[in-house]
Amino acid sequence: MHLDLLLDMAVSGHGSRVAFGPRDGGLTGEDLAARSEVGAERLAALDAGHLVFVGTNGPAFPIALFAAARAGIPLVPLNYRQTPEQIAALIADLEHPVIVHDPALASLVADVDAPAMTTDSFATSVPDAWSEGPPAPSNGDPDATALLLFTSGTTAAPKAAVLRHRHLAAYVMTTVEFSNADEDAASLVSVPPYHIAGVSNTITNLYAGRRVVHLANFDPAAWLDLATRESVTHALIVPTMLSRIVDHLDATGTMPPPQLRTLAYGGAPMPATVIERALGHFPDTDFVNAYGLTETSSTISVLGPDEHRDALASDDPAVRARLGSAGVVVPGIEIEIRDDAGDLVGAGQTGDLWVRGEQVSGEYRGLGATVDEAGWFATRDRAWVDDDGYLFIEGRADDTIIRGGENIAPAEIEEVLRRHGGVADAAVVGLPDEEWGQRIAAAVVTRPGATPTETQLTDFVRAALRSAKAPEEIRFVDELPLTDTGKLVRRDVVAQFLASEGTTP
Amino acid sequence: MTDLEPGTKLASVVCATEVVVIRAPSQPVEITCGGVAMVPADGPDAHSGTLGADATDSDNPTLLGKRYASDETGLELLCAKAGDGSLACNGTPLPIKGAKPLPSSD
Question: How would you label B5-21 residue by residue, b for 16+ Cβ within 10 Å and e otherwise?
Answer without folding.
Answer: ebbbbbbbbbbbbbbbb
